[in-house]
Amino acid sequence: MSIETREKIRAHIKSFPARSSHYSRNQNPNKVYLSEELNVHLMWLLYLKQYENDQYVKYTSGKKHDMKPVVKYKYYNNIFLTEFNIGFGSPRSDRCLKCDQLQQQIENVKGDEELVNQMSNERRLHQSQADNGYTLLRRKSNEALGKNNFDMMTFDFQQNLPLPNLTSSDMFYSRMLWVYNFGVHNCNNGDGYMNIWHEGVAARGSSEVCSCLFKIIRNNTKRSPNLVLFSDGCVGQNKNKTVITFLQYLVENNFCRRIDHYFLYRGHTFLPNDRDFRLIEKRKKLTKAT
Q1: Which Pfam families match (predicted)?
Q2: Minimal CA–CA distance to 192: which of 168, 241, 156, 163?
Q3: Chain segment 23-75, per-residue pLDDT in tens
């Protein structure tokens, strides 16, 4: 390929709006993510549409002809893989890094039975500690059903929602408006509450977490003496001085007498909120914009 053609490919890849990971930014600061609706093959087709439209028609409409594209898919894919650090959709930051590391270490030392046993025991201990968190969550959830002696809630942010929800090829070149959804699940009655705003209104930090929790606690709980909370341990949102001060405010102003806030292990943070979010994702896939 000529230098000019390679520059066109680079410019085309850079033309897609990208975002960085919200949680794993410190671990991989240079990696960015494109829309989950995209893939490299689709990007290549969009390149043909822009620079070789007759080839785009050939590959998308089934009209065959002998002329081959100047930029073949393997050339486009090679530049994408070797020159860019790009993923698609949301980064899997909820995966447990320690589990992955221990599993990889076990694979690397196969043949050394003593090391394999040592690392396997360490992995089992780690996973048992994570399972203890789920066991406590299930036990507390069962106790909360129909009980009046304590209120129990779990909370989490849903994956960012892009607006508008369109799959038109032109939309891939436009920057989406990100919509945030903070979900609170009431374990006493099974209700889920969604607090929704877009990035032009506010961020998704500890102040927003406290505002949403205060609204739900004030309006949608029985105001029992004890309050039990479960969440992940994200420092920027849930595990910080702002949230601790907010919970202290609730106690000092007689919203409740005691608050227990439990943090699940990172990577092992499946909460009832995820079932609530799944309903939204399912409906989103079935809904077509008009």
Answers
A1: DUF7869
A2: 156
A3: 454 456 678 888 777 889 999 999 999 999 888 888 887 777 778 899 999 99
